[in-house]
Design a protein that fits this description.
This protein has 21 helices and 21 strands. The chain is of the alpha+beta class. It is globular. The protein binds a DNA duplex through residues 18-21, 23-24, 46, 57-60, 62, 76-77, 79, 104-109, 111, 129-130, 276-282, 299, 301, 304, 335-340, 359, 365-373, 375, 432, 434, 451, 453-459, 501-502, 504, 506, 509.
Length: 611
DNA sequence: CTGTTCAAG
DNA sequence: CTTTCTTGAACAG
């Protein structure tokens, strides 16, 4: 992102700092090797790695400066710019999709990834975000309409409606790199399914190249892409030509154990922990079992053991253990937190099989959380102060990510992007509030402290005043007093003796109010309309209640109460918490009815239906 | 629905 | 001070 804003930075080693560590860095910084040769002789695994590989993620700043004194360090505590850049790129890519299968993975990274399905997927990678895209339908369509007698001069259609939208390309070759580098079994594998897959992948790679060009032309972001038939394969193959390159995994894809499969060859040399969905817990269990019993040097960090030590365990090794079977893995991979189907899932992954779907794009996130870590947090005063900070930032995030400028009044440019403007409507409503802490362990007998990263949390229904669009600080303070402190006391009833290394406050259990309105079927609309009068009464009652007790009220559990489904919530500023001012905020001029704002969309739909 | 664990970046 | 700040999915009870 910094590079995109200032291209000259690409040649200087750049790192982003959060607290006392490097949280991410650019390729230049990762490439840098230290000039002092004695580092290479150092016996410490740690400094050996850092001296041979340049900067890493999660490296201490002190160590980073040692390995690369000329590194430019920028502060990265403020994540809004990253989020903005991420959102921009994501929505740009998503707009190309026909089926809206565009899944975002992370946003603070320097690479992105996309997918095509065998009868299925393609992949792509860019800057700042990782995204998978299922472009099967686009590939299908273009294969249907392609002119097979003149493949060199093909045209890729980016729109089904407008045949002029698209780009010219050569459908007889892959764009970018391939893996393996040269085509295997060129003459042998000319059977129908293999050659049709070849063509599909070629189209996928050409689309990927087009998207990468666009990303660079329009936003100045370089990108890296992997093209294959699943999320697993496209992501892995995308890593092979790392900065600013794209790679397509080419057939034969034979998954049956016979034959040479480029998938098998590609997968078998991977360290087990580098396979997506195999994190340090699963990797550890498998290493343990194939290395005989002991798993040394583990320290639950895949980053260490995979590099050069003898602990390197590959996919091939695991796959070839004699007892290998789904049942075997199911027995091996049990424990709290492991999915019930871990065994079969991992078995499939080891064989290059991943049938998980690319998730549909979302307009609202599932949850929003804000957290901060502390060297020392052991007094109630301090906790309250920090909770206010967190709550305020959370409210800000909610307004950015869960509201949009209200349609209709386009004239007011100011309110368009101002998240605190009164003229906004909520497109998502969280129903729960959660407070998480990470208590520091008490001091051991020998003076050391056993490090733990265990978190504990408590949650409660969210008070409705957080949806008011009045002054942020007011709402934040109230949220702390009426909801967060009670949660805190549930977590830590003792008034003293604790010391927290982290606090996180989150809104969860998100209701997507925008697509919720679409969910209502036509037949239901009329009954909804008939029900309106009773609903309106409830609305008034509930609002009065909410004025009196807005704190953690377990009473609001009755299903069907209006507070639970203000689906299409239009909220005038303060309309919720100050219901007395204006009980009915929408006035339908067609039938001269007044109603609460959240009823507006459904009501309009009612009129649409009867036309 | 609540609280925890794993995974990813 | 070998861990920052998130998000999403899944499980048990």
């Amino acid at each position: 992102m910094f590079e995109a804003e200032n291209p000259s930075l690409k040649s200087v080693p750049l790192a982003v700092q959060q607290k006392h560590i490097i949280v991410t860095c650019n390729y230049e910084a990762r490439r840098r090797v230290t000039g002092s040769p004695h580092h290479l002789h150092c016996s410490s695994l740690n400094s050996l790695i850092s001296s041979t590989q340049g900067l890493r993620k999660l490296q201490l700043i002190t160590e980073a400066r040692k390995t690369c004194p000329e590194v430019v360090i920028v502060l990265g505590e403020e994540l809004t710019r990253f989020r903005d850049a991420s959102k921009l790129l994501y929505s740009f890519l998503r707009a190309f999709s026909w089926n809206d299968r565009a899944e975002r993975l992370g946003f603070d990274e320097v690479s992105l990834c996309q997918v095509l399905r065998h009868e299925g997927y393609v992949g792509l990678i860019a800057a700042n975000i990782q995204v998978w895209m299922d472009i099967s339908d686009m590939v299908d369509y273009n294969i249907d309409v392609i002119n097979r007698s003149d493949l060199q001069n093909s045209f890729f259609h980016l729109s089904r409606e407008d045949p002029t939208v698209g780009f010219a390309f050569n459908a007889t070759q892959y764009a970018g790199h391939t893996f393996p580098q040269s085509v295997i079994g060129d003459s042998t594998a000319n059977d129908d399914s293999s050659s049709s897959l070849r063509l599909r992948l070629m189209l996928g790679s050409q689309l990927a190249l087009h998207l990468r060009h666009q990303l660079e032309e329009v936003y100045g972001y370089t990108s890296t892409v992997g093209v294959s038939t699943s999320k697993l394969l496209s992501k892995l193959v995308g890593n092979t030509n790392k900065p600013r390159g794209q790679t397509t995994l080419i057939p034969p894809y034979d998954l049956d154990n016979t034959n040479e499969s480029s998938i098998r060859a590609f997968l078998d040399d991977y360290e087990i922990g580098k396979i997506p969905y195999i994190g340090h817990k699963l990797a550890h269990k498998m290493r343990e079992h194939i290395l005989g019993r002991p798993a040394r040097c583990d320290n639950y960090d895949a980053g260490f053991s995979d590099s050069e030590s003898k602990e390197l365990v590959t996919v091939g090794q695991v796959r070839q253990v004699p007892e290998m079977s789904v049942e075997f893995l199911n027995k091996l991979l049990v424990g709290p937190g492991f999915a019930h189907d871990s065994g079969s899932r991992i078995f499939a992954l080891l064989h290059g099989v991943d049938d998980s779907e690319v998730a549909k794009g979302r307009n609202v996130p599932r949850q929003i959380s804000i957290e901060d870590s502390y060297l020392r947090l052991d007094s109630m005063d301090h906790v309250v102060k920090e909770l206010k900070m967190l709550a305020s930032r959370l409210i800000e995030r909610m307004r950015i990510d869960l509201t949009e400028a209200r349609a209709g009044d386009e004239g007011d440019r100011h309110s368009k992007d101002d998240p605190s403007a009164a003229v906004r409507r909520w497109i998502g409503r969280p129903e729960s509030l959660r407070l998480t802490t990470r208590p520091r362990m008490p001091i051991n007998a020998d003076g050391t402290r056993t490090r733990t990263f265990k978190r504990v949390s408590r949650s409660s229904p969210i008070p409705s005043f957080v949806f008011s669009l009045s002054e942020n600080a007011d709402i934040a303070d109230r949220l702390v007093m009426e909801a967060l402190i009670p949660l805190f006391k549930r977590l830590h009833p003792e008034r003293r003796g604790w010391d927290l290394s982290l606090m996180n406050v989150a809104v969860t259990n998100m209701i997507d109010t925008a697509s919720e309105s679409k969910g209502a079927t036509g037949r239901d609309i009329e009954s909804m309309f008939k029900r309106q009068n009773t609903v309106l009464d409830e609305f008034r009652v509930k609002e009065e209640e909410s004025l009196i007790s807005t704190d953690v009220v377990p009473g609001g559990k009755d299903k069907g109460s209006m507070l639970e489904e203000p689906a299409n919530g239009y909220y005038e500023d303060d309309a919720v918490s100050d219901a007395s001012a204006e009980d009915f905020v929408y006035w339908c001029h067609a039938c001269d009815q007044r109603m609460p704002a959240f009823a507006k969309v459904a009501h309009e739909r009612f009129h649409d239906m009867s036309r």
